Amino acid sequence: MKVKEVAELVGISVRTLHHYDEIGLLTPDDTTEAGYRLYSDENIATLQQILFFRELGFPLKKIKKLLDDPSFNRQQAFEMQRDMLLEKRKRLDAMIETIEQTIQHEKGEINMTNEEKFKGFDFSHNPYEQEARDRWGDKAVDESKKKVAGFGPELGEEMNRIYFNLASVRHLDPASDEAQAAIGEWYTMLNKIGNYPPEVFAGLGKMYVDDERFRKNIDQFGEGLAVFMRDAMGVYASRNS
Amino acid sequence: MKVKEVAELVGISVRTLHHYDEIGLLTPDDTTEAGYRLYSDENIATLQQILFFRELGFPLKKIKKLLDDPSFNRQQAFEMQRDMLLEKRKRLDAMIETIEQTIQHEKGEINMTNEEKFKGFDFSHNPYEQEARDRWGDKAVDESKKKVAGFGPELGEEMNRIYFNLASVRHLDPASDEAQAAIGEWYTMLNKIGNYPPEVFAGLGKMYVDDERFRKNIDQFGEGLAVFMRDAMGVYASRNS
DNA sequence: ATTGACCCTTACGTTACGTCATACATTATA
DNA sequence: TATAATGTATGACGTAACGTAAGGGTCAAT
Predict the structure, then answer these.
(1) I need a labelling partner for A223 at 20 to 30 A (CA). Which of A54, B14, B41, B131 fits?
(2) Mean pLDDT, 10 residues at a time, chain A of 241 residues
(3) B40–chain A Cβ distance below 8 A for any pair
(4) Does domain B124-240 have CATH number 1.10.490.50?
């Protein structure tokens, strides 16, 4: 397929395809004598992947890394994307609810706090940044930051370990040393991974807050989330930014 | 409220607030002696509006115009935004379905055409661009384009007229001269307004295709959409880009 | 042989901030 | 109350993901 054909099929511009070629994100499998780009079916499948990731807010650079990674698993990626899309829909639903409430609010029918006016927008409200620092202190966080800072390609495994650490202490008093250490590591890890769109971590932030909410979240998102996190991070962060 | 406070409340960066001030999109109602920005409750409400529009993909320039327009009606805007969010959710649902099908497809459980692989992404598939040109020809379109080109602030009313024209011919043979003229105008108008995110026109494109589908769409989206279109366009396009 | 639709590359423009750098203001703490 | 820590302001340059010409080949059809 030639550029325009592809562009029309998927609903993007020709320039976009040029751009993706330029940055090496999607190089057509073949070209004609005259230098025309020819996209294979495999290319189209890859493009679908790219667009899913893009829809989820991933920067093209990261998408490239993902796809280039030899450990990339398409099936797995699809499942992850589905989960993220579902997460996104939740957020959208929250926004819709917010707006409906706002409509009533403006009519004077109900009351709303300022905070409520921004549900669905803000992920900063899940207090993972602030509360983590409040509860465990900058020192602990910074310390475990150092510990984790040296991670290389084995980040995935390390992630795995940290997750299980965390899981193993979740029945303890969150104020206990073990819990603090585990939570600090977990927090640091997320911080390190950083820079992913909200959907990736939506719901996760709350895990740090306290044991009860943590468990609630595990329930809410199920094992799937944990698995997803391990897999995702294993893949995403395999070589640091 | 000072910048950081606001930023944390709504989940955006301080820089973003600075930026919005720079471009005159959101100027704080007050400032301290030292030049610190102080945001009022009214400012916060406006910010909420801004973020809703932003979420829907509106460029900041357009948002500014919208808010600056004296005929801007907050209540109305909220309702519009809600409709657009609902539209966006539909699209998201389509994507989720697509990805679920793709997962099955990759397992070899079902078959998918290339087109089906991109449902939810592409709005180019609703053939409003291509089919309109195919059916009514570039000449017709260009002609009515000229007719419409002179519109000024009264675009809203003109829009109204066009809409009713269109409504009044929808029971006619779409091949009839009247229908063609009306449809051409409508199409041109959309074209002229142009540059809005897909959600704005989602579903509308199909209206041009033929009488049956046109009616179906009116049913599907209800009168609300038509009203929304008139209002929205009246507001949005009141002064040409 | 020429037209019109399509393709190429090069290159500068644009949007919405991110990211310093530098400097004054305010608040917390010793 | 001195001093550090934190918050804020104004530049100013950087970036991401294309948009938008400009200038010039290519290919199918007439």
Answers:
(1) A54
(2) 91 93 95 95 90 81 80 71 75 84 84 75 37 35 36 40 48 51 52 35 30 32 31 28 23
(3) no
(4) yes
